[in-house]
TrEMBL record:
It is an enzyme of class 2 (transferase). It is a multi-pass membrane protein. The keyword Mitochondrion does not apply. GO terms for molecular function: protein-cysteine S-palmitoyltransferase activity. Residues 146-290 form the Palmitoyltransferase DHHC domain. The lineage of its organism: Eukaryota, Viridiplantae, Streptophyta, Embryophyta, Tracheophyta. This is S-acyltransferase. It is found in: Membrane.
Amino acid sequence: MQENHVTAISEEHEQTCWGCGLRLLLVSYSPVFKCGWCGAITNPQNRIRKPDSTCFSLWRRIRDRFFVSVLLLFMSFVICAGFWAVYPVVFSINYFCGVFHSTITAILSLSSLSTFCLASFKSAGTPLNITWGSYPVVGKDSLENFTFCAYCEKPKPPRAHHCRSCRICVLDMDHHCPFIGNCVGAANHQYFIFFLISIVVSCSYVIGMTSYAAFHTWPSNHEPSALVTSLLLKQILSGIATSVLSLSARGIILIYLAFACISVEIGIAFLLWQQLCYIYEGKTYVNHIKGDYNMGGERGCQNILRFFSCPYLAYRMLLIPSNAAKMQESSSKIL
Ligand SMILES: [Zn+2]
Ligand SMILES: [Zn+2]
Ligand SMILES: [Zn+2]
């Protein structure tokens, strides 16, 4: 993109800056230009966006509410059914074992539900309202690299994106997540990551506990160890089938919870890994999709520490050795 300044050459192309309203004379015709006064970027493409239909907005709202309800129901089911199916086994070992696991369950349930609520109901981060449109009011460089959002009809900061589901511009937008019914942006990205971590840890715990309880409640005439040691596949399958049929409701719930949590954990662990990779690289999912690699800055662990707001000491400890190594490298080059 070429930076153009106000010139006094009358035969050049005349354009109007949306940011400050100044009429600019450009040295060459360019549909996309940057104002030399306020720094706003004018792109005629940004002006011709059709507003979303009511049906489209309604469909997205219904879809988000449906996914949020399904997720909340699933989390409540796992907590209640897990407690009902596992705890008779845990309390049968001894009372302290039961109290210990009840405390862990309460902590994990509370952290999953609270981080979900924070990620879901907290605003993802909307840009501040800024004065624009007339020359004396808009100061020099006050709209540096701002573009115009045709949906919101107001200035859009450099790292912001418009979300058509939330119908607002979101700062540092990562993506719109239908499962939390909200955008993941500057203000709730941390809560979203904590929610993913909490779900991965909770699912691992549920898988461990349900497997342990299932082993204890498995019908004694069909020992799992006997199934494992069985050589013929046909025998193993028929053994499992008869064992499942003779299981109680509690046993079926245990098996269902274990398999459901394994599937959820695989999906969420992959999403968490992908998110951490983007944070490490200093970009968001939207930047990745749009190929705005210059927006993110330098990749490195400092991005992860900054994201989690780690104490200054940890930040320094991580950066000093890498900076010292860089300095040593450059001094050896000079020698
Ligand atoms: Zn301007
Ligand atoms: Zn917008
Ligand atoms: Zn959104």
